[in-house]
C-alpha cells in the first residue's frame, strides 16, 4: 500500500510540474498589434452590400499601417450601417500575416449602444478581437471579410 501511495504521489507531482509549465505565460497571448477601425456599409439593391467604405490603422512594432476591410454585408436591408471599433491582434509575427479573409470564431456585435466584442481569425492563424458599437446589422459573408493593407 505504501508503494502504491508513493507512486500515486510521484505521479501527481510530475503531472503538476507538467501542468505548471504548460500554464506558464504563452507569448502568443500577448497582443502583437492594436488597431482602430471605422466601417460604413451602404446597400445598393436588395440588401447586397455593395459599398463598404472602411478605414483602419494597424499599429505593429511601433509603425502604423493603414488598411481597409472589404466584403461585409447587411443582409436584406436597405440603408447603411456603421461600426466604430478598436482591437487587438494576436499571433502575428510579420506584417504580411495581417492581410487575408477573416472569419468570425467567437462573440458578436449587435446593433445597440453597448460596447461589444467579436473574435475573428484569418487563414494565416492571426486572431483579432474587435470591440465596438454597431448602428445596424452587419455580417461577414461566408467567404470572410477581406482585410487589405493600403498605401
**Can you count the beta strands?**
8
Poorly predicted ranges = 8-28
The radius of gyration is 21 Å
* Overall pLDDT confidence: 78
Distance between the termini: 72 Å
- What does the overall shape look like? globular
Largest sheet: 8 strands, antiparallel, barrel
The tally of domains stands at 1
Biggest sheet strand order reads 1-2-3-8-5-6-7-4
Secondary-structure-derived class: mainly beta
Q: Quote the beta fraction.
A: over 45%
Total helical elements: 1
Determine the fraction of residues in helical runs and give it as a percent range.
10-25%
Order of helices and strands: HEEEEEEEE
Question: What is the secondary structure topology, with strand pairs?
Answer:
Blueprint lengths: L1 H22 L9 E11 L5 E12 L2 E8 L9 E11 L9 E8 L8 E7 L4 E8 L10 E5 L2
Antiparallel strand pairs: 1-2, 1-4, 2-3, 3-8, 4-7, 5-6, 5-8, 6-7
Keywords: Signal
Amino acid at each position: 500500500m505504501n508503494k502504491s501511495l508513493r507512486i500515486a504521489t510521484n505521479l501527481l507531482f510530475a503531472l503538476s510540474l507538467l501542468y505548471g509549465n504548460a500554464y506558464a505565460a504563452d507569448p502568443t497571448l500577448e497582443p502583437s498589434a492594436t488597431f482602430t477601425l471605422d466601417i460604413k456599409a451602404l446597400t445598393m439593391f436588395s440588401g447586397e452590400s455593395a459599398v463598404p467604405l472602411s478605414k483602419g490603422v494597424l499599429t505593429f512594432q511601433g509603425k502604423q499601417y493603414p488598411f481597409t476591410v472589404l466584403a461585409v454585408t447587411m443582409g436584406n436591408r436597405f440603408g447603411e450601417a456603421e461600426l466604430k471599433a478598436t482591437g487587438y491582434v494576436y499571433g502575428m509575427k510579420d506584417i504580411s500575416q495581417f492581410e487575408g479573409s477573416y472569419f468570425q470564431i467567437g462573440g458578436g456585435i449587435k446593433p445597440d449602444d453597448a460596447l461589444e466584442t467579436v473574435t475573428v481569425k484569418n487563414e494565416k492563424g492571426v486572431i483579432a478581437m474587435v470591440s465596438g458599437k454597431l448602428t445596424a446589422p452587419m455580417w461577414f459573408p461566408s467567404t470572410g471579410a477581406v482585410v487589405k493593407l493600403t498605401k
